[in-house]
């Protein structure tokens, strides 16, 4: 496992007009056209076919990101490209079970886990912004501990895969299986976008895929410990994230 500390960046979320450094204009145009065409061509393809396309197209310039809620996409990607890089953002606020899942994935799956840490430790962030920033300004906290580090984690890749699904929330209902990530200048792949929770459960059972133990303890979606709670029967799967606030996304997929 490789650990990388995010470096550079700003101390506040960028404006909508800010575009991170990335490929040159010609390469961006090429990747954008590729993503848009693949989004159309692969809409009805299986998750494994989508990931095989990504592996064949981008090789070592392709990675998977994982929150370690489960290892489904990492497992699928390892079938398409053994030894695939899996980017994990260690925010410093994770449940111990999440770190344990990361370590288990590294130990038993044919993947290379890249752990990315923020520029500031939790103590350094508390000293600069005050304690419990996640309670007072969760958007800024997510930016500093997730969004900014992701830029570092994806820097050397042209394409990244996520576990986004259309059935998770209204904000994800139109997730393409392949799209152009304009802010980062990269191809964004959601191979299980069309899957339901039943599909995920069936894949986990069939292949013995590792999942976060918290999923068996009342948590339907697992994020940072201070901002995640168990959900009640019948609640939306993401109701336990930033409960009591209007926040629904950490910013990684906006």
UniProtKB/TrEMBL annotation:
Cofactor note: Binds 1 [4Fe-4S] cluster per subunit.
Cofactor annotation: [4Fe-4S] cluster
CDD domains in alphabetical order: PAPS_reductase
Catalytic residues (positions): 250 (nucleophile)
Region called Disordered, residue ranges: 1-26
Domain of life: Bacteria
Molecular-function GO term, any one: phosphoadenylyl-sulfate reductase (thioredoxin) activity
Keyword Oxidoreductase: yes
Similarity annotation: Belongs to the PAPS reductase family. CysH subfamily.
Entries under HAMAP family matching the protein: CysH
Its biological purpose: Catalyzes the formation of sulfite from adenosine 5'-phosphosulfate (APS) using thioredoxin as an electron donor.
PANTHER family noted in UniProt: PHOSPHOADENOSINE PHOSPHOSULFATE REDUCTASE
Name of the protein described by the UniProt record: Adenosine 5'-phosphosulfate reductase
Species per Swiss-Prot/TrEMBL record: Streptomyces heilongjiangensis
Gene coding for it: cysH
């Amino acid at each position: 496992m490789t650990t990388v500390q995010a470096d550079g960046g700003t101390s506040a979320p960028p404006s909508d007009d800010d575009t991170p450094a990335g490929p040159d204009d010609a390469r961006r145009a090429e990747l954008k056209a590729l993503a848009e065409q693949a989004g159309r061509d692969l809409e009805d393809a299986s998750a494994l076919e989508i990931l095989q396309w990504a592996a064949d197209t981008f090789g070592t310039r392709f990675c998977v990101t994982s929150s370690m809620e489960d290892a489904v996409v990492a497992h699928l990607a390892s079938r398409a490209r053994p030894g695939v890089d899996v980017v994990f953002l260690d925010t410093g606020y994770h449940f111990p079970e999440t770190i344990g899942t990361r370590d288990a994935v590294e130990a038993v799956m044919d993947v290379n886990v890249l752990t990315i840490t923020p520029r500031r430790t939790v103590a350094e962030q508390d000293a600069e912004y005050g304690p419990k920033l996640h309670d007072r300004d969760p958007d800024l906290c997510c930016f500093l501990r997730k969004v900014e580090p992701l830029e570092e984690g994806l820097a050397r890749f042209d394409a990244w895969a996520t576990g986004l699904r259309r059935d998770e929330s209204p904000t994800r209902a139109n997730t393409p299986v392949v799209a152009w990530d304009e802010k980062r200048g990269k191809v964004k792949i959601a191979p299980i976008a069309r899957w339901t929770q039943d599909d995920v459960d069936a894949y986990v059972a069939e292949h013995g895929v590792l999942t976060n133990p918290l999923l068996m303890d009342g948590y339907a979606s697992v994020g940072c410990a201070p901002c995640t709670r168990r959900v009640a029967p019948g609640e939306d799967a993401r109701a336990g994230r930033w409960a009591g606030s209007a926040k629904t996304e950490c910013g990684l997929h906006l």
